[in-house]
Write a structure and sequence with these properties.
Elements (H helix, E strand, L loop, with lengths): L6 H8 L3 H6 L27 H20 L5 H18 L6 E7 L5 H9 L17 E4 L5 H7 L6 E2 L12 E5 L10 H9 L4 E6 L7 H8 L9 E5 L7 H17 L13 E4 L8 H13 L3 H21 L9 H14 L2 H20 L2 H23 L13 H10 L12 H16 L4 H15 L2 H15 L9 E2 L36 E2 L10 H29 L7 H73 L4
Parallel strand pairs: 1-4, 1-5, 2-3, 5-6, 6-7, 8-9
Antiparallel strand pairs: 2-4
Helix pairs in contact: 3-4, 3-11, 3-20, 4-11, 11-20, 12-16, 12-20, 13-20, 16-17, 16-20, 17-20, 18-20, 19-20
Length: 651
């Protein structure tokens, strides 16, 4: 049966404070003192960059510029590692650089977790004989500002530990990671190790007397990471299992293997990897490691040292793509040879010689006897008549044109007039040879991608270069003829009959083969293809022509006088008109010979000027189409080469 509660028990059960508060007399409300103002926040002063950071920043900027300039020249696989280093550097700079992330890495059974607990002075990571023991990375942070870094490393919240408080001031700012075994049989452990090794600032490699010479450790990790010696510790754990002499022998052999791997050892104050012997189980040597870690963390530059090693590694692997043998580039000799080949392709020298001969022919005709000039004018008139008749229709080809080739006339009618753009004056094989020789000279000694870019630039410029040289040669021919009635193209060494040969089907070439202005007009008249029109007639031509006219007048006077004597119309000695006729007859050729002698110098000058103009026009075309694109590629290479020197730390 249930006992009935007494009155005291009932009062005790229901006296919950409410009735007492109701029966308690009212009290005046007390005013609570305002809470004290919170202390002003302590301003967080940004850590000044370390000397390593001051050197690292311009190198990262140069590497970023280098990648940007090289995207169009190098494939993505070549630049992928550089891009990854830049991304990791940017990600690491978003967090505090004065914090140092150190990972404990090693093989199965090397005692990483035991050493982790010994450094933390607490049982934070499970250690035992079961393999593998560590299934996920575990962290221990001697700071309260490591959450962002741990999030970046992918450490889950359940695996984040803290050492015993108060923190050891010697390890302030240290974030220690206990990684899974790099040779674990469990799936995913090796991938976790490889991923975190690319993110942490420093690594403590834990080896034991049995596996310190393991080929997997040295070939897969230590040898490729030889450039990270300044952020590397190598500790020989479990020395408690060895005698003192045996431990020294194993430690010496470990140093020898590390030296063969290319890892610089930090001995005698030199930068490099620290090699220590300890026992995480007994604590022997752990204090020495703790002291070395404290000094390493106190420098606050581990992140910069790690990123510097990353930049050094990627620069070494990119060296073959940027560093050339010798001093590549376009020399003045290569440029001159290229211009000489183009001048040869357009026939600049031949055009100059042809212009010189044509100028001398014109001088001979201008300074010749009156009867010679009369014959030339007659032939020119006949040539113009035949050209007009031939242009009216093919039927004109059946006309009897004397020295005219009817097939040439009809051919010219069918094909139409040959414009400067349709005339092929440049030698295609010589143009191709010039471009190939220039591309070879410019790309000699360059790294493969940049040599290919230079050759491609030269190849693009070679497309249409021969046609452009044709047009430039024609433009050089007609440019100086502005202001004349019309400018045409002649044939070098053309016939003197006033009609062109069958080369191109042209008709109506000037009798001299080079052309002159029409009577009563100023200007240069027609000119040979590729030759600049000749300047106006020299004044001494007119003087000699006047002299030839006077001699011809004397010859006619003597002839009329002698005829009058023979007919009895005049009286006097016969030798006077005979002397006049002889003087006029002999004086004309002598005066013409003097004119030919006087024309040699000006004709040579005109030929050289014609060659110079055509050579300059061809060189200008070659510069615009080939030399400038090639020089632009070489300039781009020099820019990226300068950026590579800065990125590689060689500036």
């Amino acid at each position: 049966m249930t006992a009935v509660p007494t009155a005291d028990e009932v009062n005790r059960f229901w006296n919950d404070g409410l009735i007492a508060r109701r029966n308690r007399p009212e009290r005046a409300p007390q005013r609570m003192a305002p809470p004290p103002p919170p202390p002003p926040p302590v301003p967080r002063v940004a850590a000044s960059p370390s000397p390593a950071g001051l050197v690292l920043r311009p190198r990262l900027d140069a590497l970023r510029e280098l990648v940007g300039l090289s995207r169009a020249r190098l494939d993505r696989r070549t630049l992928a590692e550089a891009g990854r280093v830049l991304e990791e550097a940017a990600a690491r700079h978003r967090y505090a650089l004065d914090l140092t992330v150190v990972a404990l890495a090693g093989a199965t059974g090397s005692g990483k977790s035991t050493l982790f607990n010994a450094l933390a002075r607490a049982q934070l990571s499970e250690a035992g004989v079961r393999r593998p023991t560590t299934a996920m990375p575990i962290s221990c942070a001697w700071t309260d500002r490591a959450d962002g870094l741990l999030d970046r490393l992918g450490i889950p919240a359940r695996a984040r530990r803290q050492p015993v408080r108060p923190y050891d001031p010697a390890l302030s700012g240290l974030v220690l990671l206990d990684l899974p075994d790099h040779d674990s049989a469990a799936a995913g452990h090796r991938e976790q190790v490889d991923r975190l090794l690319g993110l942490v600032d420093a690594v403590i490699w834990v080896v034991d007397p049995e596996k310190y010479a393991d080929a997997v450790l040295h070939e897969r990790y230590l040898r490729p990471l030889a450039g990270y010696a300044e952020v590397t510790f190598v500790v020989l754990n479990q020395v408690d299992r060895l005698s003192e002499d045996a431990a020294d022998q194993v430690l010496d052999d470990l140093r020898r293997l590390l030296d063969e791997d290319g890892i610089a050892l930090g001995e005698h104050g030199e930068p490099g990897a620290a090699v220590l012997a300890l026992s995480g189980l007994t604590g022997a040597g752990v204090g020495e490691l703790r002291e070395a870690l404290g000094l390493f963390v106190a420098r606050r530059n581990a992140a910069e040292l790690r990123l510097t090693a990353d930049v050094d590694g990627v620069s070494a692997r990119l060296r073959s793509a940027y560093v050339a043998d010798g001093r590549p580039g376009l020399t003045e000799r290569a440029r001159q040879e290229f211009e000489d080949r183009l001048a040869e392709a357009v026939g600049a020298q031949a055009a100059g010689l042809a212009a010189e001969r044509a100028w001398r022919r014109d001088a001979e005709r201008a300074c010749g006897t009156s009867w010679t000039r009369l014959r030339c004018w007659t032939e020119r008139g006949r040539g113009q008549v035949f050209r007009v008749l031939g242009a009216r229709g093919p039927a004109a080809g059946s006309m009897d044109s004397g020295s005219m080739d009817s097939g040439s006339v009809s051919g010219s009618v069918d094909s139409g007039p040959l414009t400067p753009s349709r005339r092929r004056t440049a030698s295609r094989p010589l143009v191709e040879q010039a471009v190939r020789a220039l591309a070879y000279e410019a790309s000699a000694g360059l790294p493969g991608p940049w040599a290919q870019a230079v050759r491609e630039a030269a190849g693009r410029g070679a497309e249409g270069l021969a046609e452009a040289l044709d047009e430039v040669a024609a433009a050089a021919t007609t440019a100086a003829a502005t202001g004349t009635r019309r400018a045409g193209l002649g044939l070098p060494g053309g016939p003197r009959t006033g009609v062109g040969r069958a080369d191109g089907g042209r008709t109506g070439v000037w009798p001299t083969g080079i052309g002159r202005a029409a009577p009563g007009r100023s200007g240069a008249g027609r000119a040979r293809g590729g030759a600049a029109p000749r300047p106006g007639r020299p004044r001494w031509w007119a003087a000699i022509a006047a002299g030839q006219g006077a001699l011809s007048a004397l010859q006619l006077l003597g002839l009329v006088w002698l005829g009058g004597l023979l007919a009895g119309e005049f009286a006097g000695p016969w030798w006077v008109p005979g002397a006049l006729m002889a003087g006029g007859t002999l004086g004309g050729p002598v005066l013409a010979w003097c004119g030919r002698l006087a024309a040699r110098g000006p004709a040579r000058g005109h030929g050289l000027e014609t060659e110079r103009r055509l050579r300059g026009a061809a060189a200008g075309c070659g510069r615009a189409r080939v030399l400038e694109p090639v020089a632009a590629e070489l300039l781009r290479y020099r820019e990226v080469r300068a950026q590579f020197v800065i990125a590689a730390g060689e500036a």
